[in-house]
Amino acid sequence: MATSKPRIPRINDEPAWVLHAYDWSESSLILDVFTRHHGRMVMAAKGAKRPHSQFRPVLLPLQPLRVAFSGEAEVRNLKAAEWQGMQVMPAGEGLVAGLYLNELLMRLLPREDPHEALFDGYAQTIQALSQPAGLATAVVLRGFELKMLQALGHLPELDRITLTQQALGASLVCWSAEAGLRTAQNGERGLPAAAWQGLNEAIRDAQSWTRVWAELSTWEPEWRAALQPQLRQVLNYHCGVQQLHTRQLMMDLQQL
Fold first, then answer.
1. What is the distance between the terminal CA atoms of the chain, rounded to a whole angstrom?
2. Are 104 and 250 contacting, i.e. CB atoms less than 8 angstroms apart?
3. CA 15 to CA 35: how far, in whole Å?
4. Are 131 and 230 in a shared domain?
5. Which residues of the chain have a pLDDT value below 50?
6. Dihedral sign computed on CA atoms, order 197, 200, 202, 204
7. Helix (H, G, I), strand (E, B) or coil at 159
8. Which of 54, 83, 112 is the last residue of a domain?
9. Could you tell me if residue 3 is inside a domain?
10. What digits encode the pLDDT tens for the residues 129-168?
C-alpha cells in the first residue's frame, strides 16, 4: 500500500514585515520577509499582482503584517497576509530611512535565523520614523545601526581598547571594522572616552532602544558627526559593499 506524503506544516499568525518585493511572473511576487519567530525568509506570493488579489493592498514595506505560510523549500508559499494597522507610514526622509534599514537587514541577516529582540526594535524604529515631530532621523538611524550590530555579534565593547583590553584614556578613540576601538592617529576624527562610555552603558540594556536614542540625543553635534563615518565603514565592511544603494539615495536627496 502506497504511503501518503507527509503534510507540509503551515505557520499561521506570524508577525512579519516585507523588506522587499521582486517580480516573479506577470502575476506573482517573490518577497524578502522579516518574521519574528523564523527570521528572514523568502516567500512566493502567487497572484499578488492581480487586480483583485487579497495580497495586493497589504504587501507593502514598512507596514506590520501577520502572515501564514507553508513549505519546506528555500522559497516558502505565502498563504495569507493581514495588515495590523499602525500610525501613518513614514514619509519623506523617514521613508528613505526606513528603506535603508530594510537594505541593511537583507544584507546582514542570515536566512531563517530568528532575532526576536531585533524584530521588536525594528518595529520601534519604524514607529519613531513615522512621527514627524519626533527624534531626529540621524539619531534614530545611528541607534538602529548600533543595536543591530550588537544583535548580530559585530559590536565590540565600547568602554575599552579592543586589542589591548585597556580602559579608554584621555586620547580620542576611533572604531574600525578590523581593529575595533583603537586610539585615533594622524589627525583622525575620533571620539572622547566619555562618548564611548555613555554609549556603552546605554547599549548594555539589550531590550531598550529608546535609551540608546536618548543617549545619542544628548551628544554634541560634532560627536554624532564623527560617529557616522565610522559606523558607515563598519557596516559597509560587514555588508561587503562600498556603498549601500539607499544610503547613496539619501545623500543625493540631501544635495538636492
1. 71
2. no
3. 6
4. yes
5. 1-2, 5
6. negative
7. coil
8. 83
9. no
10. 998 777 899 999 999 999 999 999 999 999 999 999 999 9
Judgement on whether residues 105 and 218 belong to the same structural domain of the protein:
yes
- Same domain assignment for residues 44 and 167: no
Cell readout for 22 is 521582486
Asked, for residue 2, whether it belongs to a domain, the answer is no
Containing domain of residue 14, as a range? Answer: 10-83
pLDDT tens-digit series, residues 87-102? 678 888 899 999 999 9
Tell whether 62 and 109 lie within a shared domain: no
The CATH number linked to 102 is 1.20.1440.120
Q: Could you give the count of Cα atoms lying within 13 Å of 247 in the half-sphere of its Cβ?
A: 19
The cell for 217 is 540625543
Q: Where are the alpha helices (DSSP H) in the chain?
A: 93-108, 116-129, 137-151, 193-204, 209-218, 221-239, 245-255
Neighbour count for residue 29 (Cβ, 10 Å):
23
User: Nearest CA to 97 among 131, 59, 57, 66?
Assistant: 131
CATH number at residue 26: 2.40.50.140
| 169 burial level (CB within 10 Å; 0-12, 13-18, 19+) | exposed
Q: How far apart are CA 40 and CA 122, in angstroms?
A: 13
Q: How far apart, in whole angstroms, are the C-alpha atoms of residue 152 and residue 108?
A: 8
3-class DSSP assignment, residue 43? strand
Residues 73 and 102 in one domain: no
Distance CA 129, CA 205 (A): 21
Beta bridge partners of 191: 173
CA 199 – CA 251 distance, rounded (Å): 26
- The pLDDT tens digits of the residues spanning 20-29 come to 999 999 999 9
Query: Residue 172 CB: number of other CB atoms within 10 A?
Result: 19
Grid coordinates belonging to 117: 529582540
